[in-house]
Amino acid sequence: MAAAATAKMEAIFATNKGEHPEPLKAEVQGDIPSWMEGILLRNGPGMHTIGETKFNHWFDGMALLHSFTIKNGEVFYRSKYLRSDTYKHNIEANRIVVSEFGTMAYPDPCKNIFSKAFCYLSHTIPEFTDNCLVNIMRNGEDYYAASEVNFMRKIDPRTLETLEKVDYTKYVAINLATAHPHYDSAGNTLNMGTSIVEKGKTKYVIFKIPASAPASEKKKKKTCLKHLEVLCTIPSRSLLNPSYFHSFGISENYILFIEQPFKLDILKLATAYIRGVNWASCLVFNKDDKTWFHLIDRKTKKDGSAKFYTDAMVSFHHVNAYEEDGHMVFDIISYTDNSLYQMFYLKNLDSDFEDNVKLTAIPTCKRFVVPLQYDKDAEIGSNLVRLPSTTATAVKEKDGSIYCQPETLCEGVELPRINYDYNGKKYRYIFATEVKWSPVPTQVIKFDVLTKEKLHWEEEHCWPAEPVFVPKPNAKEEDDGIILSTIVTSDPQKLPFLLILDARTFKELARAVVKVDMHLDLHGIFIPQKDLKMEQEPDLYKEPE
Predict the structure, then answer these.
(1) Where do the structural domains in the chain lie, given as residue ranges?
(2) For the chain, which terminus, N or C, has the lower number of CB atoms within 10 Å?
(3) What share of the chain is helix, strand, coil (3-state, %, to 5)?
C-alpha cells in the first residue's frame, strides 16, 4: 500500500465526520437505470472523539446515518448523527460519559441516567447505550436504527430525523437482540435475543413482530411492537455464559440458531464497571468447545431433538439457509477464533495500518448440511448426508449426536448479501466484500455457489462497504438487478461515492460522487420508492436555494 494511503487510513477510521442534514446533489457519472428509485439508508460509526476524550474501538463511535436518494436518474445525499440519549449526554458533557462496547466511561452519577452500572444477579446487565450504530431494520411501516442491545431508535428514513426510543424489555424479556432480523412473506419481522438470568434461567428467545397493528389501533398510531409474539425459547447450555450471536437463519420450515463457544461472561459483565474494564473483555472464546446447531420447527415452534454439532468456530453473518431433499443446507461466514474484534481497536487502525492489522483468522464461507430425515438405526460412523451436490458431511456418533463437517465454498469474504426474494430458498449468488490482508474490504464480489466462479469490482485506494442487491421490477432471474455499495477512499485526490453495478455482469453502470468526508458504514437497507410513505414533501430532495 502506498504511504499516502496508509497515512490516510487514520482519517477514515478515527476523525470525526461532519453531518449534512440537507440534501446534497451528487455528481452522477454514468447512467442509472430508469426503474431505480428509492433510498439506500446506511448506518455506522462517525464520531470517535468528544472533547478531549476518545473511544478505544471503532465500533464505539457515535452512530451516523446517511442516505442516497435515487430518483429520475439523480442522487441526493444526506447524513445526520442519531440523536440518541447517548449522543446528547456525551455532547452536553463534551466528553464520553456513556460506556460503549470497547470503552468504559465513568460519568458523574448526578448528571447521567446511564450511571447505574450493575445490580443484583437477577438483574446483572448494566443499562446499555442507545447508540444504535449497527443496522437499519423495519418493523411494520416504520424504520429503526438498531444495534445488539435492548434499545432501538425509530427514525424518519427521508430526513434521518431521530424519533422515539424503543425498549424491547417493555414487550419481551430480553437483554440483547440482533440487528439482523428476517422478514417473512407477510411482512412480519422475525428476530431473536437473549434473556439473561430471568427467573433463574438464561435462554435465547425467538419472536415475531407483526407487519401491522390491528385496524382498531392503526388510527391511534399504536406500535405493532405491542403485539410482539414469542415463538419459542431455547435454554442456554450455561446459566452465566450464553453464546454470543450476531445473526441467525431461516428456511421455509425452520429457524436456525447457532450456539457457538464465543460466549458472554455474565459475572464479568456485571462487575466490569467496578473492575475498570470494557464489555468487550467479557466475551470469551473456548477453542476446545463445540458449536451446536438448533433447528426450530416454525410450525410446532419446538427445537429438534437431534444433537447436531461441529468444531469450535465464531460466526457473525449467515448467508442463507434452505431445505433440499430432506436436508437443511445453510451457508455462513465463519472464523477459527474471535480475533476480528481486536483488529478494530483504534490503536491498531490509527497508524502503521498495514503492519498492525493483519488477519489471523480468514473469514470463510462454509456450507453445512444437516439431515432432517434419516434412519435412526444408521450405522455408527456413517455419513447421513445424501445430497450429491456437496462434500459436507454429517456423521452419526456413538452417543447419538451428529458431527457436521462443512464444505468450504470460498475464503476471504464478509458482509454477505443475497437477493432477499431467495431468502430461505435454494439460491445461487452471494454478493459480498472480499478481504485480503486486513479486515477492511478491498473488493465487492459476486460468488456463484454452483460454479464457484467469482466476479469482482476493485479500485485502488477504495474501501467498499457491504453490497446491497436491488432487484429489477418483474425480474425473472436471481441476479437481474443492481448492486449498491458506498465507497470511501484513502486517496486525498479522490472523493467518496455510491457505486452502482449491474448485478449480472458486475460492470459499473454509474457512480454518484459526493463532496463530503464520508464515513465507512456497517449495514443498511434499501427502501424502494413504492414503500415510502406518501405524505413526504414533494420537494424533499431538491437542493436548498
Answers:
(1) 3-531
(2) C
(3) 15, 40, 45
Strands 508-513 and 523-528: unpaired
User: What residues contact 220, with CB distance under 8 A and at least 6 apart?
Assistant: none
Q: Cell numbers of 370, please?
A: 444437516
536, three cell numbers: 413526504
Q: One-letter amino acid identity for 23?
A: P
CA distance linking residue 293 with residue 258, whole number of Å: 5
- Which residue(s) pair with 42 in the sheet? 66, 524
Which DSSP helix (H) or strand (E) runs through 95? none
Residue pair 128/149 in contact by the 8 Å Cβ criterion: yes
* CA 9/CA 351 separation, integer angstroms: 8
The Cα 104–Cα 273 span in angstroms is: 7
Task: Report the C-alpha gap between 223 and 144 in whole angstroms.
Answer: 13
505 vs 479: CA distance, rounded Å:
9
Distance CA 525, CA 67 (A): 10
Nearest to 390 by CA among 447, 331, 431: 331
Sign of CA dihedral 314, 320, 325, 326: positive
Specify whether the CB–CB gap between 447 and 430 falls below 8 A.
Answer: yes
Q: Is beta strand 497-502 parallel, antiparallel or unpaired with respect to 481-489?
A: antiparallel
> Nearest 10 degrees: CA dihedral of 8, 11, 14, 19?
-160
Q: String of b and e for 203-239 (b: at least 16 CB within 10 Å)?
A: bbbbbbbbbbbeeeeeeeeebbbebbeeebbbebeee
Strands of 298-449 (E only): list them.
308-310, 314-324, 327-335, 364-371, 393-396, 402-405, 407-411, 413-417, 429-434, 443-448
- Give the cell for residue 489: 477512499
Q: How far apart are CA 5 and CA 314, in angstroms?
A: 31
Buried (b) or exposed (e) across 364-377, using 16+ Cβ within 10 A? bbbbbbbbbebeee
Q: Tens digit of pLDDT per residue, the chain (545 long)?
A: 434 444 456 667 778 999 999 999 999 999 999 999 999 999 999 999 999 999 999 999 999 999 999 999 999 999 999 999 999 999 999 999 999 999 998 754 433 333 343 343 334 455 789 999 999 999 999 999 999 999 999 999 999 999 999 999 999 999 999 999 999 999 999 999 999 988 889 999 999 999 987 766 655 566 789 999 999 999 999 999 999 999 999 999 999 999 999 999 998 888 887 888 888 999 999 999 999 999 999 999 999 877 999 999 999 999 999 999 999 999 999 999 998 888 888 887 765 555 555 667 899 999 999 999 888 889 999 999 999 999 999 999 999 999 999 999 999 999 999 999 999 999 999 999 998 767 789 999 999 999 999 999 999 999 999 999 999 999 999 999 999 999 999 888 999 999 999 999 999 999 999 999 999 999 999 999 998 864 444 455 555 44
